[in-house]
Amino acid sequence: MPSVQDWINNPLGVVDGAFAQNNSGAEWEKKVVEYFKEKLKVNGAQSWVPSLNDVPLHYLKPNSLVKFRCMIQDMFDPEFFMGVYETVDSSTNSKVLRCGKYKDVTDCGQVDFNSRNAVTSERQTFYCVPIPGESQWVKEISFHQARVVPSTSYTPNRHKRSYEEDDEMDTQAQQENNCQWNDSHRNVESKRLETEAPSQNNSPSRCSSNLDLNFPLPGEQGPACLVKVYEGWDGFKLNDMLEVFGILSVDPALSLMADDKEASSLLDPTESMETVEEQRAHSPPASLVPRIHMLYAQPLKHNNPLLPSAVSEDKGACRFLSGVLSELTSVRSELLTYLTHIFLGDSLAAEYLILHLISSVYARRDVLPLGKFTLNVSGCPHSSPYTDQLYQIIQQLVPSSYQICMSLHNMNNQRMVPRKDYTANRLVSGTLQLASNTSLFLDETQLEQGQLDATGVRNITALGNLISWQKVDYDFNYHQMEFPCNINVLIVSEGRSLLPSDCQVHLRPALSPPNLEEYLKTVQLAQASSQLNKYRVYFTVARSLDYNISDQITKAVEEDFVEMRKDDPQSVSAEDLHRMLIVARLLSLSYGQTSLSRENWIKAKQMEMMRISRTQQQKCVNGNEP
Amino acid sequence: MSSPSSSARKRARSSNPPTPASEDPLSLSPRPREPSTGELQPMPTSPGTDMQSPAIQDTSLFSSPVARRSVPQSEVDMSSPLIYDTPSRGTPARQRPDLGSVRKAPQVDLNSEPPSGDATVASEQTAGQRLVIWGTDVNVGTCKEKFQRFLQRFIDPSSREDENACLDLNEPLYMQKLDEISVVGDPVLNVNCGHIQTFDADLYRQLICYPQEVIPTFDMAVNELFFDRYPDSVLEHQIQVRPYNALKTRNMRSLNPEDIDQLITISGMVIRTSQLIPEMQEAFFRCQVCAFSTRVEVDRGRIAEPAVCRNCNTTHSMALVHNRSVFSDKQMIKLQESPEDMPAGQTPHTTVVYAHNDLVDKVQPGDRVNITGIYRAAPMRVNPRQSQVKSVYKTHIDAIHFRKTDERRLHGLEEENEQKLFTEERVSMLKELAAKPDVYDRLSSALAPSIYEHEDIKKGILLQLFGGTRKDFSQTGRGNFRAEINILLCGDPGTSKSQLLQYVYNLVPRGQYTSGKGSSAVGLTAYVMKDPETRQLVLQTGALVLSDNGICCIDEFDKMSDSTRSVLHEVMEQQTLSIAKAGIICQLNARTSILAAANPVESQWNPKKTTIENIQLPHTLLSRFDLIFLMLDPQDEAYDRRLAHHLVSLYYQSEDQVEEEYLDMAVLKDYIAYARTYINPRLCEEASQALIEAYVDMRKIGSGRGMVSAYPRQLESLIRLAEAHAKVRFSDKVETIDVEEAKRLHREALKQSATDPRTGFVDISILTTGMSATARKRKEEVAQALKKLIQSKGKMPAMKYQQLFDDLRGQSEAAITKDMFDEALRALTDEDYLTVTGKTVRLL
């Protein structure tokens, strides 16, 4: 049996070994996958595998096992490849059967295309990007833990590799990097900085053609990857979050192909059918967009590194979960205090923010998404740093988020809806292509008077659709395709938002600190990082709890509704009941209760009442609404 | 390529094929198999590929199958069924690059000096029926015979295809088509594979598995037959057989390695077409010293330039003469999966299709097509200088036949024939469902289950989904009758109108969803724009045209500007759309049903106003809606309770219950699709009588105040509704029950049963309690009492309103509210007894 380092450093050896052992049947393929699954199950084994999110590409050994936490941004066409092929050694004329799985390029030797033993197989390619809008703390925590495990054995190797491969790179920069790398072994903190540094160094020097890596959000960094999937690709969906374990392939031959395009096109007319754009999108240089041949992928429900990723299975996770549940209520009250401070003493708004942050679409009834809870916090001061700081605070609490400033310029110029580019044959991403449970922060206070152009109108419509139906209609030029999503939208505005929302809370500050910025900073600083971690766990756990309503409570709710309608049929509509039911649901979950109790129902009603009376008062004050 | 046949083929392709002992050596020579993957095989390793030898003379070629594909060959492949023994009588054969083997047909050589290859072929034909083409089980002779028999005998009496429109169904179908070819002179014979399958399943299997061999055989067979029958006809080139509708594969997603080199049919949408690519088939070289000329076939994209002139032995004297070389047309087409075929949450797949010769430019981006062709795969080399090969194949389809699925939309021919396939079980399951007495209720409750009650509205929408029967009266000058049902939903905000619209939009395959606020007339109809690349004017179609044969959902209908709304006039009755813009004048079909939602004028329904006053849309437009539904909040305790229960249950139902409903939606979709395609009900005698009566009744009532009065249009809607209801029952006859339901729905829609015929107001309490009779009686009494009171006061021309009210209250035993008093006054006004102006009441 190969040692631990073998299966990480040379997984292809394992594959080839299995292939050689029993090349008779298709059994070996399953065995290989099983083997790696078993290996990864071992406690902590997953953290031994270097992560592509963290370690710069040129430090990774080609054909080694890597992991990559990503979102599927696009799905390319399935490709046929040589599953098994025969090579001829020209000197001895002997034939050898080889396996083409998990490889991009055939091994040495002349390939015999006419071999009757050859098997054509099919695989699917996904274009994956790091999870868009992933918060800084997520990266810090997940890679901090990864680094704790000593992984020195492969570092020297990597040095060598990187030297050889990147010789065209600026040597000085290379040395600098290496120095940093050596230092960083001792210093975890500097490592993080370093991971970003090379990518900045790289990008201008390496890709003169300015390759667009197609990240959904502008200003994102990190590697994009072409993930080759060998089985069960029908199970994956666009925008799924995955933790991929696979074999890294950065064979320079892949990049060569693009360079030699002109030469080959003269020889083979069929080659020239692909446009340059398509070439670039589908086979970018491997040094920028590495290939990962997937051995195993874990669909992620959330990307919170503080929690075990698969919530159910093993015992450790269960124990962890019950621990969290027991102190859920106390965490909640601390959190409420914290958020109340942030909202300048408005505890109602803080309550609603908690509800909003644990909301998630849990089911869809025909077209109706259930469980979404879009919050509109109105009454935010116009053009002050308050909204920005609010966003920063939320960013610290949720694993992934994004802020859209709804300024006219942004609305008219940003590409929100992903669009299919038929020349390059890929899905050009937009800011609304987000993984599920991402927090989208819409800052409407930035909006000024002016004209929206066609793009602006489309963007506003897209946002409206997102909020009302939790779907984004991707633009496929000849038709639109609907992709359901699960995005928490929080709108901050001065007055009522122009976008629809499930619930509007008018901010009513109880205190007005002289220096708002200072005040918020001190509030933030008062939170220890352990405290923040508790909050982070709280949100993820509360969101994933199950929920039901007993028959008894159902009856009571019905009674209540009828009663309310009796007094004044205009005051409560079916929509209001919808909202109250959501509030009640989220309120129960926020206390860690999995079924609705009468108290919570009453509390939900009261909260709603307070909220509505507030907005009505606001209307009276403004006096300009009917 | 795991099938045994393909591995056998591979063997055939290897440069020096070992002669299998078991097989007749003759079978080796017939036809070199076209390798599917051998394009990059290192070039001149085998003696057979000696490119410099002029093709025709080099007979040694025939014993050495050469690797090649989709590129022209120099050697005359005498063994090709396409060439040998074709009674062409001078009609040139045309290359079929679509079959991957581009063959020259130098007829002269064929006739004058039969090369040795011919002998083997001839002997093969006579040598009995056991001989087959290498690597397949196809015997040319048998295959040809079978196909000829098929052509001569196949009769398809049940044909519904438009292509066979003017053919006699009881005569052999394809013989008539051959007849057509002789008249028209278009040498292409389209053959439905389904027909072959029913006629001879084995032949069909061979066609699917070995299209490259079988289709040339078919070509040969058909040409023999044709020139036998019409010896004098002159064609541009020999007839080519183009099979279509191969049932092997329908969906791009299900293509897999096993389909390589097989005949497949897939549907999809064209997203991009390349420029025409002239592909050199044959290079012409001339010696600059002695002017000796030679032709060299292009092999795998390469031209082997002759180094030595064979005439004068000068080296490097041969020069390429472009304008004497031979080129063929080629076009790359990108095909994308049609949106209907895709699983949710995934992106569509694309496939590359190559069109050759006359198929070039047959399709445009945006067309929905069914493509029949041969699926190919070829390996890619990483670098020509390296031996390493990228282990990925490039795949494409060589198109043999295109069939536009939406062609009909342009021609406006009747009934769309989008062959949605239903399996036997599915059909019997649907029929079983249809036989149930409560199918109508079942279906309507399966529609948008998350929306509470509004049963009648759901029924109306259900009928809309089914639609009426399309009738053609163009002979009598009235053109098409509209079969589509238009519905307007009007009512209080928050009564889930939008949700209903969203649901319908998601349910129907060709639905469009727009909002009145956001759409302009142009966005709904069509507009002309300049293509930035070609600088051509392009007609871009809007929502209404796109939803042809579907449903166009328009939300916030009331917010739509008048000019936009006026566009709908033509669409909603004539079902066409006329455009005259930027020099483009045309009439497009827009046979779309319209489902619109509007809020009342005052955003809340005003019960003090009549229906017409509340909706306030132009009467011309209103009358074009078959059903106008009022969605009102009934404000009733029992209703509230049921509503609350429904909503609460929505919030705790488990996942699998949700799943169950989803299944229902699939059934519903199929049910509708089936009924729309196969059921065309007609009116029976009784039903028409019932309709006439209903119409006369409507005319009588309709004269009342505030009612939507009846026009012949309403009669037509009744017919449509009745037809749709018959469709729901899978019945071919419209019967009285259908008419009854149509009548009921029509009445129910406007809440006419709840409308006071004299005041025209909708009485909401009647809706829920249903006790209108007593209330109405009571109103009557109050009015009479008031009249008496006024009469008792003697001759007074005018009275104070307030005083009269007080008097009446004092006089009556029961309490009289102001509303009741107002109503009584209004009743008297209607009798022309008095008028109310401001605060005074005048007698007339």
From TrEMBL, chain A:
Annotated segments matching region Disordered: 152-210
GO cellular component, one term: nucleus
Keywords attached to this entry: Nucleus
Keyword Cell cycle appears in the UniProt entry: no
A biological process term (GO) from this entry: DNA-templated DNA replication
Highest taxon, organism lineage: Eukaryota
Any one Pfam family match given in the protein's UniProt record, by short name: MCM_bind
GO molecular function: chromatin binding
Biased composition (Basic and acidic residues): 183-195
Comp. bias intervals (Polar residues): 171-182, 197-210
Location(s), subcellular: Nucleus
Family to which this protein belongs: Belongs to the MCMBP family.
PANTHER family: MINI-CHROMOSOME MAINTENANCE COMPLEX-BINDING PROTEIN
Name of the protein: Mini-chromosome maintenance complex-binding protein
Originating organism: Pygocentrus nattereri
From TrEMBL, chain B:
Pfam families the UniProt entry points to: MCM (PF00493), MCM_lid (PF17855), MCM_N (PF14551), MCM_OB (PF17207), WHD_MCM4 (PF21128)
InterPro entries listed in its UniProt record: AAA+_ATPase (IPR003593), MCM (IPR031327), MCM_4 (IPR008047), MCM_CS (IPR018525), MCM_dom (IPR001208), MCM_lid (IPR041562), MCM_N (IPR027925), MCM_OB (IPR033762)
Reaction equations catalysed: ATP + H2O = ADP + phosphate + H(+)
Gene3D superfamilies registered for this protein in UniProt: 2.20.28.10, mini-chromosome maintenance (MCM) complex, chain A, domain 1, Nucleic acid-binding proteins, P-loop containing nucleotide triphosphate hydrolases
Compartments reported by the entry: Nucleus
Start-end of Polar residues biased regions: 46-63
Protein name, per record: DNA replication licensing factor MCM4
Annotated organism of origin: Pygocentrus nattereri (Red-bellied piranha)
Classification lineage: Eukaryota, Metazoa, Chordata, Craniata, Vertebrata
